[in-house]
Amino acid sequence: MPGFCLGRGLIVPAEPLLIVILGPTASGKTALSLSLAERFRGEIVNCDSVAVYREFEIGTAKPTAAERARAPHHLLDLIAPTAYMTAGEYARQAREVLQEIKARERPPIVVGGAGLYLRALLEGLFPGPQRSEELRERLRQRAEKRPAYLHRVIRRLDPQGARKIHPRDAPKLIRAIEVCLGSGDPMSEMWKLGRNPLTGFRILRIGLNPDRNALYDRINARARKMFDGGLVEETQALLNKYGDSVWALRSPGYRQTIQLLRGEISRETAVQAAQQAHRNYAKRQMTWFRREPGVRWLEGFGDDPLIQQGAMDAGESMVTL
What DSSP designation does 105 have? Predict the structure, then answer.
């Protein structure tokens, strides 16, 4: 990477480039990451909270073997289905990978739709209490019987923090309750204690913002393709091996497939419910990502050559600084 002059001819090395691709599900982040990796000789770092699990393939839309052969990929198929990857642990491992890529003098390209993982990686997390699986399981069981239960609890414990969490976002609600009970303080107060932001990189955030109707059409088509491509069989195999308590089986597509396998809904209803769940997830992702600072938004899909060229131009401008 080029350096820059800082008085009397002193050349100071420029910090290496880190490209972050964010956007909703089905917006073409994988296609864009591959085009940028090939252009800048970069290495791709997964930032999807379900794609870190082994054996979850069809329902996660992971890069195919052919796509992975086009550029080095990291943090895919990282942990067993029975494990759980917190945002803090993801950030720790991802930062190690970034340093390894940096040592090879290649730009890391972080790509995925997990907003909390991305925030933990780039900004760090506040110091909070350890996870309590016993508490979490009790909260999950109560939430299954009374869907509004979690949000009522956090409103009582931390009214200010509750306003920043979607009433249906169970993982964040459970963590917020866990923090409040474990620390004795509202989570909104813990947020003020400071973070540990990532340093040593110039960060280029590229956001994909395609037309909503076109995005929903793609989401619907991809969800149906998952069912046609073996999602039911994959989910059944996971249930047979690990049971239904695996966290990732609660994600869109898998949850509805479990209902189908239990005979609670028909196949077509399961497809439509999965499509709706993915659309809802996309809306939550965009709400989250619009709060990200310094994003260069591109109005289209990541597989569009014009969008790819726009992203390359943004990368070139950062490289030549």
Answer: T
Strand 43-46 to strand 17-22: parallel, antiparallel, or no bridges (unpaired)?
unpaired
Average pLDDT across the chain, whole number: 90
Q: What is the pLDDT of residue 8?
A: 53
Query: Domain 3-125+199-231+286-319: what homologous superfamily?
Result: P-loop containing nucleotide triphosphate hydrolases (3.40.50.300)
Rounded Cα distance, 49 and 172, in Å:
13
DSSP readout, 196-262? ----SSEEEEEEE---HHHHHHHHHHHHHHHHHTTHHHHHHHHHHHH-TT-GGGGSTTHHHHHHHHT
Q: Which three-class secondary structure state does DSSP give residue 2?
A: coil
Is domain 133-193 in CATH 1.10.20.140, yes or no?
yes
Reported residue count of the chain is 321
Share of the chain above pLDDT 90, in %: 70
Spatial distance between the Cα atoms of 125 and 195, rounded to a whole number of angstroms? 5
Whole-model pTM: value is 0.81
If phi > 0 it is left, if psi is from -120 to 50 it is alpha, else beta; for residue 243 that is: left
